[in-house]
Amino acid sequence: MENQEMELNVAETQEENAFSGYDDIAEKEREEQARQAQIEADKLLPPDPEAILEVRHLKKHFVLKKTMMGKPISTLKAVDDVSFKIKPGETLGIVGESGCGKTTMGRAILKLHQPTAGQIFFEGEDIAGYTPKQMRALRTKMQIVFQDPYSSLPPRSTVGDILAEPVRVHNIVPPEKVKDYVLGIMDQCGLRDYYYERYPHEFSGGQRQRICIARALAVAPKFVVCDEPVSALDVSIQAQIINLLKKIQQERQLTYLFISHDLSVVKYISDKIGVMYLGSMVEFGPKEKIFDNPLHPYTNALFSAVPNPNPDEKTDRILLKGDIPSPANPPMGCKFHTRCPKAMEICKHIVPEYKEMEEGHFVACHCYSENSKG
Fold first, then answer.
1. Closest CA to 194 of 229, 232, 236, 159
2. Which of 223, 292, 310, 371 lies at a C-alpha separation of 20 to 30 Å from 3?
3. Residue 58 in contact with residue 120, Cβ under 8 Å?
């Protein structure tokens, strides 16, 4: 036992010596140049014809402080170089702690936030640079279900008016058929026809979320961002809403980007899963591979926090030390190294490569890189 500890201490000392006097600033500049070269090379590639949505190197930065001349001094990197694809009819679940950039990413994809950089291919067209006027034609194809159903519904409009407005604006059906069309959408979402004349404050949380889902479906979209649609609801209602989303997806062949921090919900509804930390994707892959073989230490920590329904079975909880660093001032090297139980010296200096470990299963971690031994 003592020999093992001595060998471990020697290895750690050698690793520290390998990075003594290491120029972190120069390394960061080299990484940025390499990343920019990769982005420019990827711009020349055609979009995947099998994907309804393909995101390449998406970034969304918010300027916190400017000089008198308007030059940014401090920037918050809410979404920092995220890439993935979704095929028609699939559900991609995005998980991570609060503040990791999940919602901002979803809104940037829909152009509710203007992306700072990157490409967003929807049905083969790069919409990242589209103006609001150009996006108007796509609003019927891309919709969102917001996290808080009450604040996203106008309190002075009836359910009928809320659902009929987008139908009229986008000319989904002739004017004389709008009410029948809206009643059909309400029935599909489990809403009674006499709700048509009622106001949002007269409904429970679960019923309000059904109204939000009905509003998204009213324009017959192909792609829907579900931004934590069940986090504000109790467990029994959560199951009803999730089953409703799955039923509608099968009936209408919808594609979902499902944002949540509840892993059990994500496991039930998703086909693929992406794990985000501090604006970056740290692991991505098919649901079975992520749950059966989680690779990133952060993914393992998230899974260990899921309550076990069996009281007799002991779960080894992985407790992360410290708090999430500020996205306005992220750590050098791997962003997770300040909290990682497996952190090495290399993690403090070099950003890990985001690479494919098995078919479709990607991870960004030095535990699986060739140069992790210094």
1. 159
2. 371
3. yes
pLDDT digits (tens, 9 = 90+) for 316-357: 777 788 778 888 888 888 899 888 888 888 888 888 988 889
Residue whose structure tokens are 């999940």 = 102
> At CA 357, angle to CA 303 and CA 285, rounded to 5?
50
- What is the distance between the alpha carbons of residues 17 and 374, in angstroms, rounded to a whole number? 9
Residues in CB range of 197: below 8 A, 6 or more apart: 158, 159, 160
CA distance 333 to 311: 40
Closest CA to 200 of 144, 145, 146, 153: 153
Say how far apart CA 152 and CA 170 lie, in whole Å.
20
Residue 91 in 3-state DSSP?
strand
What is the model's pLDDT at position 262? 85
Concatenate the DSSP letters of all residues of 212-228 into one string: HHHHHHTT--SEEEEES
* pLDDT bracket for residue 10 (50, 70, 90): very low
Q: Is 143 helix (H, G, I), strand (E, B) or coil?
A: strand
| Chain length of the chain | 374
Q: What tens digit of pLDDT does each residue of 135-187 get?
A: 998 999 999 999 888 888 999 999 999 999 999 999 999 999 999 999 999 99
pLDDT digits (tens, 9 = 90+) for 48-103: 999 999 999 999 999 888 888 878 888 899 999 899 999 999 999 999 888 888 99
Q: What is the DSSP string of 247-312?
A: HHHHHHT-EEEEE-S-HHHHHHH-SEEEEEETTEEEEEEEHHHHHHS--SHHHHHHHHTSPPS-TT
Question: Does position 15 have pLDDT exceeding 70, yes or no?
Answer: no
List the one residue out of 89, 94, 90 whose CA is nearest residue 265: 94
What's the chain's Rg over C-alpha atoms? 23
Q: Which two tokens stand for residue 63?
A: 């300027």
Give the C-alpha separation, 374 to 371, whole Å: 6
Q: List C-alpha distances in Å: 172 to 5, 35, 140, 193, 200.
A: 70, 43, 9, 20, 24
